[in-house]
Amino acid sequence: MNAETRNGSLITLKGVRKSFGTFEVLRGVDLAIAKGEVVAIIGPSGSGKSTILRTINGLTPVNAGQIRVGDITVTDPKVDKVALRHRVGMVFQQYNLFPHKTVLENVAMAPIQVLKETRKEVEERARNLLADMRLPDKAAAYPGELSGGQQQRVAIARALCMQPEVILFDEVTAALDPEMVKEVLNAVKKVAEGGMTCILVTHEMRFAREAANRVYFTDKGVIVEDGEPKAFFANPQDPRTKEFLDKVL
Fold first, then answer.
1. Domain boundaries, position 177
2. What pLDDT is stored for residue 179 in this prediction?
3. Tally of structural domains, the chain
4. Mean pLDDT score of the chain
């Protein structure tokens, strides 16, 4: 029996702690996210939001606690990183595209090299994903020929090409000009509406309200409060949540 069937959650974090030197970034984080759920994590800079994401896909090892994604124990020192990367995709603030490779090559590379899938099958999937991201004519282009918003949509297609069960979005609009933010948020919304389990770290409060099933507020390395978006934004319970929302709304 895997974690999903045992506790009803696809992703669970229990008592997760992480320090960088003497600074404790995460101070006992508990999370349970169901399959198909769209979760937004909000909070001030330095509150541990991005570190939570990076612990879920094993990029940042934890000091204490347990993380599971389905039947994979991420915090196991012997965790199969290839299986984990297949299960959990991530889209970063910076696009991290290879400048010397075409858009199609960027999107198709990981399934071919990491999962050893056939090139023909992967490239067909990559082209379909580029069409979904409204970039059907950009397969032969290079990243430097695209706008920031287009590059970020390529990065989303690249994450989807691994056919993950979960996608983590880490401040995907932070590096974009304001006019490009909407096109990327629309792309993220399309992924979420397709039934993908999504965890979004975002400063876009309106987007969190519209796209998420649940919103978590972090501050100083702990989850202070969570709730369904309508109630969370209309009637926050914790004084720290109220103070934060008063500043950003």
1. 3-248
2. 83
3. 1
4. 93
